[in-house]
Amino acid sequence: MTASHTEQQATTSTMVNQLVANLGVLHVKLHQYHWYVQGPQFFTLHEKFEELYNEANLKFDEFAERLIAKGEKPYSTLAEYLEHSLIDEEPYYNKIPAEQMVENLVNDYRTIRDVTVKSIELATQEEDPVTEDMLINYKNYLDQTIWMLQAFLG
Ligand SMILES: [Fe+2]
Question: Ligand 1 centroid vs 44 CA: distance in angstroms?
């Protein structure tokens, strides 16, 4: 475990909250790509990105509500999402090629998967099977999504 981060000792709840922050940013980023994607893959990717942001939104809500149910406080402002997200965003000034968008998303989903794996470990240690189950489902989804995006890249 790297102790260099400013946050307190990682717990299932702090890690799930980090997922909330990442999903808050990812949701916006997927919209950006949905709007700006260009080229011969437009129809495929425009639709795919919409599917992904809808799925991201469901998980965002599910994880935040799980924290509430546990008596915790999920982040709930854009400023908090940006502060605590590990994935970043950028204004769309210059064209991002469609393949680059997909590559960026593969990296983002891998980052989110790392947080999810760490969260699963903590949920196991803390004997919180409900959260653990949600996280394992999400990890399965992430594995599949990463595989599909990579298959697109060839
Ligand atoms: Fe749309």
Answer: 13
Domain assignment present for residue 118? The answer is: yes
Please state the rounded mean pLDDT for residues 3-16. Answer: 77
- Between CA 30 and CA 28 the distance in angstroms is 5
Task: Give the separation between CA 64 and CA 109, rounded to whole angstroms.
Answer: 19
Q: What spacing in Å lies between the alpha carbon of 89 and ligand 1's midpoint?
A: 19
Domain range enclosing 65: 12-153
Q: Is the pLDDT of residue 122 over 70?
A: yes
- What CATH number is associated with residue 144? 1.20.1260.10
**Tokens standing for 79?**
């400023």
Q: Is residue 43 part of a domain?
A: yes
* Stronger pLDDT, 4 or 19, i.e. the higher one: 19
On whether the CB atoms of residues 76 and 24 are closer than 8 A, the answer is no
Residue 58 Cα to ligand 1 middle (Å): 17
What distance in Å separates the CA atoms of residue 29 and residue 104, rounded to the nearest whole number?
Answer: 10
Report which DSSP code applies to 99.
Answer: H
Count the domains in the chain. 1
Residue 7 has pLDDT above 60, yes or no: no
